[in-house]
Amino acid sequence: MRGGGATFAVSVGVTSPVLRLVRNGNVRQTAAQFAEENLRFRVEVARVSVPPEADGIEASCKRLSDLCGAVNTAIRTLDLEREAVGDICFATRVRIAEVARILFSRRTATGLREARRSLHASLAFLLQTLPPALEPALDSRRAPGVGPLDELATVVSAALSADPLDTAWFIELGEVELILASSKHDFASLGDLTTRRLVKLQRDIAKWDGNGRAGAVAMSLAKSLQLVLDARANADVAGGEGDAKNAPKARNLPG
Fold it and tell me: Is the pTM of this model over 0.85?
């Protein structure tokens, strides 16, 4: 990612450091560690493309299926002694099992898109619903210098790197990541203009999703989302949260 600082560097891949530890012996992740692992998985899902050829779709389905297994393994490393945590993890694993079922029965472009979207949403659901059960353990999951929209920028940039023409996927990711970010952070630090843009963008995405998902509208929404992401670096500087030149930036959309 262009301009990414060391604070928010994300090393992705199914064979993550935590998963290597899991295979080498028993390990229990803290909530903060799992939040970082969750981001790695969301980035990896974002990078799964939908190629036009059958062989490419088969490879992407295999990659997503492997990710389902890796996520389940990571969930097992959480401390499940608290009943609420166990319930949330069980609900997530049920959702992931449905993703695996889709990948097994519908190895098509449509099935791959549905499974990809569902797995990303499941990861966001898990991270969004864990804090009430784990507070204050998650207080430390936001590193110094990481702004409210930096995870969003990281995930959508991964999708653009994989396929800059898949605008609908860019928007789908943005919608979920915006919901996740708003549940974790106070957007007031971004300034009134950016906050208003975020509210309008979320409303427009919901309208697009319910009215046929037109391609021309999707491109307009994607550019609006990129405008918000590009503006966030200035908000970080104004709020003393980081240096704009070190903040990760979203890749430019085509056209």
Answer: no
